[in-house]
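Can anyone check this?
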Amino acid sequence: MELDKPLKDEWALPRQRRIELQSQPASKRTKRTVFWTLTALAVGLTFVAPAGAGTIKGKVRFVGTIQAPETVTIEQDTQACGTSKDTGSIKTGAEQGLQWAVVQVAGLNGASADAEPPELDQNGCEFVPRVVIARPGEVMAVLNSDGILHNVHTYSEENPVMNLAMPGFVPTMPLKFDHAETIKVTCDVHGWMTGWIFVSDRQHAAVTDENGSFTLEGVPAGTRQLTVWHEELGEQTQDVTVQDGQETSVTFEFAGR
C-alpha cells in the first residue's frame, strides 16, 4: 500500500536514523506520511486562494471642439415633441466629460440579469436614456410617456430585427434580446429619434453619466482590460490594475473626428 512506504526524503537521512524510522510500526509511518501530505496540501492551497476584488472609477472625456449639431424642425405632434430637436450624439458636461459612452471589463463574461429590468422611454419624442444596457435573455421595457403613436424599429444582426408600432394607449412594451450585440433603435414616425440598446454579456458594464463618469464595482483583482464604446467616436481599450479592496482611477479621452 502506497502510504505504508517510507517517505522518499528518509533516504537522505543518516543510516542509523533510517533504520530507526523503518523499524517503526507501519501504522506510525502511515500517520507520519498522511500528516506531511496534508501539510503540503494546506500550504499549496494558500497559494491558489481566490483573489479579492476592487472598484474601478473613471471618466470618459471629449477633447476638441464639438461640431454644431443638426437641428430638426418639427411640424407634427408638437404637443409632445416641441418644435425643434438637437440631433447631436456628442454631449459633454463638467470637464468635458462625455455622456452615453459604454464602459466594460473585457474577458469577464457570464453577466446575470439586472436586479431591476432596464427601461427605454420615449419621452419628448426622444429615447431616454439614449443608451441603455441590457443583458442577454432578460426582458426589458420600452415605455411610451408621450402618449402618442411611436414606432420601435431595431437594427441588429445577432438578434431578430423588430419593427413594432406603439400607439399612445400602450404605455409599455416588453423586449428581449438573446445575444450580445449593439442595437440601434429608431422611430419611423419621428425620424430624428435614435437610441441604442447595448446588449452586454460582460459581468461589469456601465453607461457614463452627464459628466462622463462611471463606476464598476466588484471587479476581480488583477490586470484588466477596459473597453469604451461611443456611437459616433468609436472604441478604445486600456489596461488597468485592480487591487483587492482598493479603488482604481482611469481616464479615457476621445478626440473629434
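Reply from J.R.: I decoded it. The chain has three helices and 18 strands.
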